[in-house]
Specification:
Largest sheet: 8 strands, mixed
Strand order of the largest sheet: 4-5-6-3-1-2-7-8
CATH topology: Tetrahydropterin Synthase, Chain A
Strand content: 25-35%
Helix content: 10-25%
Shape: globular
CATH architecture: 2-Layer Sandwich
Number of strands: 8
Distance between the termini: 16 Å
CATH class: Alpha Beta
Order of helices and strands: EEHEHEEEHEE
Number of helices: 3
Structural class: alpha+beta
Radius of gyration: 16 Å
Length: 160
Amino acid sequence: MLTETRLSFEYAHRFLEHKGEAQYLHGHHGELTVWVEGAINDRGFVVPVKNVQRIIWDVMQNFDHALLLQDTDPLLQPILDTYEKQGIRNGAPDNTQKGTAFKCDLGYALPDCRLVVTKEITTCENFIKLFHALLKDKVSIKRMRFQSNADKIVAAEQTF
């Protein structure tokens, strides 16, 4: 059985070494659609369909209202330093919108900072690669689509 799960989130990023508007920090509305079949949890049991969205959101929550920067971005360390000076580097009581920290070959999350650090430029195509790497061992993904912005013009889709 194929199940479709759709999640939306807001994020900010920029493209390094890009000429034009995208070189500046700017925000987007993103929508991730994941089609799963026979989703299996880490103990080998079939996950009820109603739990698939919760499993995916636990990881994707790191991207909601977060800043996404490449690991080579010169803004990364000053932002972390500023958070340290403000006393929010290790989280704040009102920072409740955070997922489980992750680290993989394509990036890592600092949930207390609402920051995701990526190895590659945060294009829709590279988002798909990162999201798949983070979710492939949690649910049986058959297809993913990521769309950025309300007009849904910028999109990437991949079948696995």
